[in-house]
Amino acid sequence: MNGMTRSADANARARRGRPPKGTSQLSKDAIVDATLKVIDTDGVTAVSMRSVARFLGVDAKSLYNHVDGKDGLLDAVTEHLLGGVSIPPPTGDLRIDLPAIADAFRNRALLHPETAPLVLTRQLASFEGLAPVEALLGVLRSAGCPIEESVQLMRVLVASLIGTLLREVQAGPALGISDEDGIAARQNTLEDSGLPHVIEAAPRLARFDRDAEYEYAVQAATALVLERIKASQA
User: Fold this and answer.
1) Among the listed residues 150, 42, 27, the one whose alpha carbon sits nearest the alpha carbon of residue 80
2) Which end of the chain is more exposed for a tag (fewer CB within 10 A), N or C?
3) What is the pTM of this model?
4) What angle do CA 35, 41, 46 make, to 5 degrees?
5) 150 and 96 assigned to the same domain
6) What's the pLDDT tens digit per position in 160-173?
7) How far apart are the C-alpha atoms of 213 and 168, rounded to whole Å?
8) pLDDT tens for residues 197-210?
9) What domain range includes position 72?
């Protein structure tokens, strides 16, 4: 074997042993960013090790050095979402603190609205994942709410907030429309339904104001919490 052949063989072996292009730049943060882009584009159901790897231009196997499969991807994204919530310091007034926590979560979630359902479906154990839970429980307990009631109210608050966020980003005609032409068309459809209560409510049912709907949901949830705490202390 001449020197040129040996050199070519050595180069071929080196190439075969080299990780795919981009693998050396892989990190958990890069994988989370890529997963978010997949979710933003195609939704949570599009997430897989292959879809994220394809976005990064690497072999799917290389992701396992940083995350534990698809569940690991979704957990990492949820932790990233919750860990970035800027929770304000409590004031001791639930009428201020609960809306403030809700606003902080909404502002964070609307950066990647398709991720909102993950908050309800992922069971996290990390500090980042549990910090918003700690904040909500903290303000409820400080207000004198019993622990059992605090847990139930925290779940109601989270479910209400997530539901409102999903309605913001995924609202269909049944929940109202935001553009004026669509509102007029939807109102006409509702008024032609032959259903008396639907006809009566048609001007409201046809319209969807994201900010107003959100504020109403937060105020209603806060009022419920205050009422339940008052009842528990009676």
Assistant:
1) 27
2) C
3) 0.79
4) 60
5) yes
6) 888 888 887 776 55
7) 9
8) 999 999 999 988 88
9) 20-82
